Amino acid sequence: MSPEQLSFLNLRTFPARLNVEQAATLLGCQPHDIPILTARGFLEPLGRPKANCTRWYASRAVRRLGDDEKQLSRACQALQDRWRHKNHPGEPSAPRRAKREALTECASKRRSANRHSTPEPEDSSCPATPR
Fold first, then answer.
1. pLDDT tens-digit series, residues 65-76
2. CB within 8 A of 110, min separation 6: which ones?
3. What is the DSSP letter of 29?
4. Which pTM does this prediction carry?
5. How far is CA 56 from the centre of its chain?
6. Cα–Cα distance between 40 and 38 in angstroms, integer?
7. Is the distance from CB of 40 to CB of 65 less than 8 angstroms?
8. Which pLDDT tens digit goes with each residue over 53-65?
9. What fold does the segment set 3-87 form as a domain?
């Protein structure tokens, strides 16, 4: 943590508006995460800033996000999803991957059952087996 961040966190009262770096310090994330949180609706900039202007955030709104455990958890998940999709663009999300693996496993069970002459009972845990 830089000395500037440490001195900011040691303030008795925070300023009414925070820039991106101050909001990130208060939330415990990186400054490049704040635009993601803004795009996902967790934070809203003050006023209607133009594309090339400094964005300011209400100190109270940033602290409210940091104090609400459920909202903070959702914000962290949104950040993780964003960076996972950015770093691995072709990889499906975790629920899709789990479903795809389950379907692949069921299909392989059916293929092995068709190779044998005796039919095996249907697996009720397999979502892809025909009924």
1. 999 999 999 999
2. 128, 129
3. S
4. 0.63
5. 23
6. 5
7. no
8. 999 999 999 999 9
9. Arc Repressor Mutant, subunit A (1.10.10)
